[in-house]
Amino acid sequence: EKHYAGGRISSSKFIKREARPTDDSVLTGRLIDRSIRPLFPKEFKMQEVQVILSVLSFDGMNDPDILGLIGASAALSISSVPWNGPIAMVRVGEKDGSLVLNPTMDRYASLNMELLVASGKEKVVMIETGAKQIDDKVVFDGIKEAHKQAQEIIALIEEFAKVAGKKKQEISPLEEAIEEALMTEVKKVTHERIEAALFDNEHPWHEATGDLIKKELVVQYAEKLTPQIISGIFDKVAKEIVKREVLEKQKRVDGRAMDEIRDLDMEVGLLPRTHGSALFMRGDTQVLSVATLGAPSLEQTLDGMEGERKKRFMHYYNMSINPFSVGEVKRIGSPNRRDVGHGGLAEKAILAVIPDPAVFPYAIRVVSEVLAANASTSQAAVCAASLALLNAGVPLLEPVAGIAMGLFSNEKKFQVVTDMRAVEDFYGEMDFKVAGTKNGVTAIQMDTKLEGLSFEIIEEALKQGSAARLKILEAMNKVIPIAGPMSAYAPRIETMKIDPSEIGLLIGTGGKTINGIIAKTGAQIDIEDDGTVTISAVGEDSVRNAMTEIEGMFKKVNVGDEFTGKVVRLAPFGAFVEIAPGKDGLVHISQMAAGHVQAAEDVVSEGQEVKVRVTDVSPDGKVGLSMLFGADIKPESESRPRSSGGFRPRPSFGDRPRPSSGGYRSSGGFGGERRGGFGRPSSGR
After folding, report:
1. Contact between 523 and 530 (Cβ < 8 Å)
2. What is the DSSP string of 152-175?
C-alpha cells in the first residue's frame, strides 16, 4: 500500500518513504495467498512464483483487497505458470436480516457481518469472516451467495485468458524418472517408519518427527534419490496413511472420536503483577495470554493510505519468537507474517465483544504467548485472551472461544475432524477455524489444500465447530463466569464533560493550569475536542483528587458560596484570590477588614490562604469576593463597581494555548478504525 494511492504524505515527522508492509498489507497478502496457493499443482515445486500487488490508486470507499485477489487471479491465469484457476472474491455483509453485496468501506461499522469468500467455478477456496455474534446459518447463506456472485467475474477472467493467455508449462510427477523397484522399496520403508511414529503414544508426532525421518531416508538413499524426491514420497505416504485410518477405520492418531476435543485445562490470575492473565491448555497446545489496561491516550494510531485512524483494542500473538514451543532452536527475530495473521484473527474474534468506551473507557492490549504448539494455537489464543480479559476486569459482552476443524476426503466420502492435531493439520486437507460466543460466530478463517470445498463440507464444519465451541465455553465458564475485580495495579479511569468553549480554561496559558493539576494529583488527563475529559491514574485517590480540582474549576459559583482560597496577586484596589484552579475572584480593599484599609498588602500577602464568600457574579463570569463575615459585613459596599482591569484574562476556546512539554494529551477519542467492528487486524489474514 502506497500513501500516494490515497493522495497522502505520511504523518511521520522523520520517515516519509514507505518501509516494511503495514499489518493491513500483511493481512491482505495472507488473505490472497491462502486463496491462490491450493490451485498450484502439488508437483510444481521446482520454480519459485511471486505475485506482487501494489495499490496505485485508492478512492477511500472500495477496499482494494478484493481487486487485489481478482488481479492476482487474472495475472496467474494468463501466465505460463501451471495454475488451476481462475477464482474470484466477493464481500458479503449482513444488516437488518438482509445480505449486502460488496458494501463500501463507510458501511463496515454498521454491518453485523463482513464475509470474504474466494470461489472457483464449483467450489469455495477460502473464507474469512468477522461478525457480531451472527448465526451459523446466516454465515452459510452468505457463503453460497458469494460463490454465486463470483461466477460473473470468473467468466470475465476466462475470456481475458483466451485473448492474452500464454501456454502453460508442462510438469510431470517426481516419481516418473525413478525405477519401479526402487520406488516400491522406498515407499515400503517410509510407510513402516511413518506408521510406527504416528501411533507412538509415548512420543507424540510433531513436525520435527517427520523431519528426522526424512533426514534418515536422505542419508540411506543419498546415491539414488534427491532430498526433494525423498520429501515428496514421504509426504505422499504419510498423507495416505492418515487418510486411510480416518476414512476407512474411523481412527485418529490419538484415538479420539471425530468430533472429540482434546483434554482442556485452564487457569486465570497466574501472574501477580499484570492486570490480567490466563493459561489455556488444549491437549499439547498451551497459550498464555496477558491483558494490560491503559488510558485512552494509549490507543494505537495507524498511518496508511486511508489516513490516520485509531485502534483501541490490540491483540498480539507470539509463536515465531518462541521457538521452544515446537522444540526447536532458532534465531529470535521480529514476529513473522503468520504471527501477524493469527494475532489479527484472534483480535477480530474478540473485538465484537469488547465493551463500548462509554462503558469501559480503556485502551486494551492483550499479548498471547504460545508456550507449546500442537495445532490450532490461534484458537487457543482466542480462549486464553478471553479469559485474561475477564481476569483483568473487562466486562466482555460474552466470552469467546475458538476451535479448528480438519478434513480428510476421497472421491466417495469425506470426514471433518474436530480439534485437529498438528499431524492432522499437516497431512489433512482443510484448516477451518471458527470462533464465537454462545450466541453466534465472531470470526472464521478457512483455507484448504484442495482446489476448493463443497457446500456440504462447509456446512458440516460449521455444525461441528458450533458444538465444540459451546463445550469449550462451558469449561471456561467454570473457571471465570464473569469479569473479576480489577487489579490494584491497573489504572482507574473516570470521565466528565465540560463545555468545549471552556477547554482553554482547563488547559491554561501554556498548559499551566492542567499541568499544575497533573503535578498536584499524579493523574493523567486527556481532553477531546467535544469536551470529554478522561482522568486516569493507578491510585483511586489521584483520580478523585483530580476530579475534585476540575469540578471545582467549572462549578457554578453563586452569591453566598464560601471558599478557602489562595491570594495569587495584589493590586492597588484589592487582592485576587484563586477559589478553584483557574478561577479567581477579586476582594476589594473595602471588603478586607471591618475598618479602613489603606493598601491590600497591609492585610494579606501573595500565597496566603484566606476564607472568602461570594458577593457578586457578573454575566460574563467575573466573581466579587469578601473576607467579611457576620457583624463585619458592609452591605453598602457589597456590589461596588470593579476596576476595569481587575480580573486575569482567560483564554478562549478558539485560540487556547497548548503546553509544550507534553504534560497532558488531547485526543480525538476511540473509533475510526478502518473496518469498524471488523477492522484489520482486526482481520486474521
Report:
1. no
2. HHHHHHHHHHHHHPPPPPP---GG
DSSP states of 565-596: EEEEEEETTEEEEEEETTEEEEEEGGGS-SS-
Would you state the pLDDT for residue 642?
Answer: 47
Q: What percent of the chain has pLDDT over 90?
A: 62
DSSP 453: B
**Prior bond of 86 cis (ω within 30°):** yes
Cβ contact 457:417 at 8 Å? no
In 120-161, DSSP assigns E strands to 124-134
465, 468, 473, 475 alpha-carbon torsion, rounded to 10°: -160
CA distance linking residue 586 with residue 571, whole number of Å: 10
If we measure between CA atoms, which residue out of 178, 269, 256 comes closest to residue 221? Answer: 178
Give CA angle at 454 (448, 457), nearest 5°: 80
- Rounded Cα gap, residues 434 and 472, in angstroms: 12
- DSSP per residue over 181-222, as a string? HHHHHHHHHHHHHHHHHHT-SSS---HHHHHHHHHHHHHHTT
Strand partners, 315: 366
pLDDT score at 644: 39
Amino acid at 274: T
pLDDT value of position 173:
66
Residue 509: exposed, middle, or buried by beta-carbon count in 10 A (0-12, 13-18, 19+)? middle
295-309, pLDDT tens digit by residue? Answer: 998 999 988 888 888
Q: CA dihedral in degrees (106, 108, 110, 116; nearest 10)? A: 150
C-alpha cell of residue 247 = 476414512
Share of the chain above pLDDT 70, in %: 91
Q: Does residue 440 contact residue 131 with C-beta atoms inside 8 Å?
A: yes
pLDDT tens for each residue of 349-381: 999 999 999 899 999 999 999 999 999 999 999
pTM of the model as a whole: 0.83
Closest CA to 183 of 229, 151, 247: 229
